[in-house]
Amino acid sequence: MITVAAAPYDYSFPPGRTALVVIDMQRDFIEPGGFGAALGNDVGRLAAIIPTVAGLLAVFRDRGWPVVHTREAHRPDLSDCPPSKIARGGAALKIGEVGAMGRLLVAGEPGNQIVDALAPMAGEIVIDKPGKGMFWATGIHEILQGLGITHLVFAGVTTEVCVQTSMREANDRGYECLLIEDATESYFPEFKASTVQMIVAQGGIVGWVAPLAALQAAVA
Length: 220
Ligand code: C5J
Prior knowledge:
Blueprint: E1 2-4, E2 11-13, E3 18-23, H1 27-30, H2 35-38, H3 44-47, H4 50-63, E4 67-72, H5 83-87, E5 98-99, E6 102-103, E7 125-129, H6 140-147, E8 151-157, H7 159-172, E9 176-185, H8 189-204, E10 208-210, H9 212-219
Parallel strand pairs: 3-4, 3-8, 4-7, 8-9, 9-10
Antiparallel strand pairs: 1-2, 5-6
The structure holds dicarbonimidic diamide (C5J).
């Protein structure tokens, strides 16, 4: 076991049974002209974590540990997107409409790709998820079970939406979850802070939180 100094108390993980999950570091949320920008958000806040996420990826890649990338993505015919999801939000452009990087949140479009600096490498798992959580309609639980994964380390965007939802889904399925707090970000700093508090509250009711430096120190 490797032990990381974390909140609410130390997080221990078995290297052979631990995967990194990088949530939705796709152009649609992080670059101007995508879905996040269409909702009126400052995407620069999210772009700022790219170097930290790259450092976290390096920890796993250098050791040959499993990496999962997710993308929030819908089929081109939007048959996996509830009308309620399309209608909601008051965005200048809605899911499936054409923006500066192609159709918003549609699989295969330029905006749906993970940013170049964090592009998946050969052998890494990439899943398209139609929901906010990584387990809904993706088959990822069966893939992780097949690999014998029991622990998940989380990064990505946005902290209070797809990251938190995925972490709660994982928690309910029995995974021991660690969020790397400087490798996740929200368009709303107060929502990120509240999410971190919620995760570690009540003795770690959802999981653990630590900075990248603590993980790097633990594996060194
Ligand atoms: C959102 C996400 N915020 N990846 N998606 O719609 O958090």
